[in-house]
Design brief:
Blueprint: E1 3-5, E2 15-17, E3 21-22, E4 29-38, H1 41-48, E5 57-58, E6 62-70, E7 82-85, H2 95-98, H3 107-111, E8 117-119, E9 122-126, E10 136-140, E11 144-146, H4 153-159, H5 162-174, E12 181-185, H6 189-200, E13 205-209, H7 213-221, E14 226-228, H8 233-241, E15 246-251, H9 256-264, E16 266-274, H10 288-294, E17 297-300, H11 308-320, E18 330-335, H12 339-348, E19 353-357
Parallel strand pairs: 5-9, 12-13, 12-15, 13-14, 15-16, 16-17, 18-19
Antiparallel strand pairs: 1-2, 3-8, 4-6, 4-10, 4-19, 6-7, 7-11, 8-9
Helix pairs in contact: 5-6, 5-11
């Protein structure tokens, strides 16, 4: 079968090969025929070595498709079922799961250390234990979440990561208060989803911040009340909040520099929500005095900060009701053979989300 492979961490191009085999099928596993997958910035971060991932590997973790085969002991799934790929499944028995913080379960991360694919030259890993830039993938049964028949594969794929992450940051982690002022720094697919979440919660002012003009224009269509470049954020802070700072600021880039900017544009007593996935050696510097004196809450948001399965259901319900726009997030479509074109679209900011059709 075909799959897009990164041979070495640090390379900026993927090679689409036809000698890749989905590996590891057995008890407790399912094999999925991938139909659509989104390109998330985390895939680029893993390719660059910003996020830890053994190589060689097949990127992709935001996917949807159909069950081909189920292993012994798997219940509730059968061949032909339509599913979204969940890259962070909950085991249900660890301390985090028992506390109701299923998004902090480590079972999914442990999957990343087991090869999902095989080539004649040896094992190949799947990013985040999945690897959806492939025609087929074998994953734990808990990674395959059934979806209703009326949800298109491309929409379902986005729910698998970007939409759940962005919406959840606003709805779960921040729990944005109606009438609040909000700034979102970084307006790709995740940032736009955070904007939609803030709008759903009744935020009065939502300022979208992004260096790419097309993304700023898109943010206005999805609910932002103002869209500015990073250089214009200070002026927006003054005009919208009288210079006090925003009630909520979402950092959706994953860099200490933008997190520091987000902190400085959060009002005293306000909330900074860290959504972007950054590097382990990129440190955010804050003085002990400002932490004490400003009393700003700093809330990291992992995968939307809530129960993933419930978040999927909520996103589907909101989409069906026309309360959120998911199709509009897909600005580009490419076949798997043109995957490197999708990488360029992400790097330049031309795309909110590119759907890779497999």
């Amino acid at each position: 079968m075909r799959a897009a492979v990164l041979h070495e961490i640090g390379q900026d191009k993927l090679e689409v090969l036809d000698d890749v085999e989905a590996a590891g099928f057995g008890p407790g596993k399912v094999k999925i025929r991938v139909r659509a997958t989104g390109l998330c910035h985390s895939d680029l971060s893993a390719m660059a070595g910003v996020l830890p991932q053994p190589g060689p590997f097949v990127p992709g973790h935001e996917g949807a498709g159909e069950i081909i085969e189920v292993g012994e002991g798997v219940s509730g799934l059968k061949p032909g079922d339509r599913v979204v790929v969940c890259w962070l499944p909950a085991c249900g028995s660890c301390p985090a799961c028992k506390r109701g913080q299923t998004q902090l379960c480590l079972a999914g991360f442990l999957n990343a250390g087991t090869p999902n694919f095989r080539r004649p030259s040896g094992d190949v890993f799947g990013f985040a234990g999945t690897g959806t830039f492939a025609e087929e993938v074998v994953v734990d049964a808990g990674c395959a979440v059934p979806i209703p028949d009326d949800v298109p594969f491309d929409v379902a794929a986005l729910i698998g990561c970007g939409v759940t992450t962005g919406l959840g940051a606003a709805l779960n982690t921040a729990d944005v208060e109606a009438g609040a002022s909000v700034a979102v720094i970084g307006c790709g697919g995740v940032g736009i989803s955070a904007i939609q979440g803030a709008r759903l919660k009744g935020a009065a002012e939502i300022v979208a911040v992004d260096p790419v003009a097309a993304r700023r224009e898109a943010a206005l269509r999805f609910g932002a009340t103002k869209a500015v470049s990073p250089e214009e954020l200070g002026d927006a802070k003054q005009s919208v909040t009288g210079g006090e700072g925003f009630d909520y600021v979402f950092e959706v880039v994953g860099r200490s520099a933008t997190a520091r900017t987000a902190y400085e544009n959060t009002r005293r007593g306000g909330t900074l929500v860290v959504v972007g996935a950054g590097a382990m050696d990129d440190f955010l510097q804050l003085s002990m005095f400002e932490l004490f004196f400003d009393e700003k809450r700093i809330l990291p948001s992992m995968y939307g900060g809530g129960d993933v399965l419930r978040s999927y259901e909520r996103a589907i319900a909101l989409w069906r009701a026309g309360r959120i726009d998911l199709e509009g997030l897909i600005t580009h479509r490419v076949p798997l053979a043109d995957i490197n074109e999708a990488l360029d679209q992400m790097r330049t900011g031309a795309a909110l989300r590119t759907c890779i059709e497999i």
